[in-house]
Amino acid sequence: xxxxxxxxxxAGLRPHAARLGGAHALVHAPDTARAVALARAAAYDVAILxxxxxxxxxxxxxxxxxxxxxxxxxxxxxxxxxxxPDAAALPALIAAIDARRxxxxxxxxxxxxxxxxxxxxxxxxxxxxxxxLPNRRHFREAVAARILxxxxxxxxxxxxxxxxxxxxxxxxxxxDGLIRATARALCDGLPGGLVARLGADEFGLxxxxxxxxxxxxxCERLVRACGASFDVEGHLLEGAACAGVIxxxxxxxxxxxxxxxxxLALGDAKSQGQNHVCLFDEALDEAxxxxxxxxxxxxxxxxxxxxxxxxxxxxxxxxxxVAGFEALLRWDTEEWxxxxxxxxxxxxxxxxxxxxxxxxxxxxxxAAVADWPGQYVSVNFSPRQFRRPNFVGYVVERxxxxxVAPSRLQIEITETAxxxxxxxxxxxxxxxxxxxxxxxxxxxxxxxxxxxxIRKFPLxxxxxxxxxxxxxxxxxxxxxxxxxxxxxxxxxxxDVVAEGVETPAQVDLLRATGVSxxxxxxxxxxxxxDDASKCAIARSIIQDxxxxxxPQRSA
Length: 555
Prior knowledge:
Blueprint: E1 2-7, H1 14-17, E2 25-29, H2 32-41, E3 46-50, H3 57-63, E4 68-72, E5 82-84, H4 90-125, H5 136-149, E6 153-160, H6 163-170, H7 172-189, E7 194-197, E8 202-208, H8 212-226, E9 229-232, E10 235-238, E11 241-248, H9 255-271, E12 277-279, H10 282-304, E13 307-316, E14 322-333, E15 337-339, H11 341-349, H12 353-369, E16 376-380, H13 383-386, H14 391-402, E17 409-414, H15 415-419, H16 422-435, E18 438-444, H17 451-456, E19 461-464, H18 466-471, H19 476-492, E20 495-498, H20 504-513, E21 517-518, H21 529-538
Parallel strand pairs: 1-2, 1-3, 3-4, 4-5, 11-12, 14-16, 16-17, 17-18, 18-19, 19-20, 20-21
Antiparallel strand pairs: 6-8, 6-11, 7-8, 9-10, 13-14, 13-21, 14-15
Helix pairs in contact: 5-9, 6-7, 7-8, 11-12
């Protein structure tokens, strides 16, 4: 401690001061004037005043209210001053004061350390550890505060394209580097706004905007900034991003709804490909509500008995004999009427519902084909079903349970299903063919079609997409494409089924090109199980069979 000793006596406190130890800085003042001058020049922890020097008490207290004052005198002193009648107890008192000051300093340091930890914890709770940017919680609070401020502003969600590919091929360290580089690019590009990291490769943007066009233009500029080349530890990475944006204002009820709608706009942008920006549209909200209603209703459709199977005949080209039937799923509800498979199948595909629906469809399709004299049933399997573990064993077990030979089940898959994982798909299809199942590639010509693809996978049938059939009457190029597919399939020993045949002119053209089988509403609508059985037994279309299903896209 720094101790100021004010002692006008010649000997005075000197003998006792020597006993205070070398741990303290002792400064002597011979009188009040000198003591006040020294106190003005430097800070002291303790002042000891002896004898007549107690006259310095008042001016020293005025200079430093925190100064600890000790008066060694027989004279009476103020109550707030420590009074010692003689100096014998001075060393012990100084030691006690020193210990208390040390404890106070330790307590203050511990308190400050705790406060710093609390500040750091509060900061970390609202910021992203990798980039230092505000996190989702902070961003939501900022949006909520901006609503209260009034005026027009924009909330945007930005998501990187191909980020997972970077992580999978170059590792997470490089992926983290790309995230940091993108964060810097966004902060540099939006100096007056707020940039937050909301998730793995998702960022939130909050900025002033005069209107929707201005907000969209700002997002397009930021998406271009994210599309730059970033050097990450020697790897030159080409960035790409999509963004969804919504214009906000004082009329908006809460921040969560703005974030939700911006996220919907982002989903719309991502569905259109890389480097797209989409403004929120109310139709997106309505589509989401419809999707939720469909998902909820679909989960209960089996139990309610709302689902039904119908079967569309597949006819041989020349004699129009019934070679098989494609199994189609229909959903009729009390609330919404008939819902198209084109609407509910994608919803089921995005959830685990596709497996329950697929089990139901396969069970009833196999039950139906067991009644037919020799035709096959063609069942569509979605990419998610095709990727399920032990798909081959699953199909084999269902056929054995139904007592149906594998050759009477045709498995229809799309090119999307097999190109998600080419090696796995090739192995799965090979094992299915070994077991005797028929394999059909549906919607041929609309995806990744190539001669290599057809040769790589063990197939039995190519199904030409209805878009080619519809166009071939009026577009020579479409007719030529169908002719080329037929020639290719013939060279490879594959059957060709033309889907969506609806007019006599299409029938004539398709027969002329040499397709092996025809399918479509020209020959009648899909049939109930009983009517399909009648057609199967007769091996031809029964003209007086009732129309049981309105024309819809097959699923």
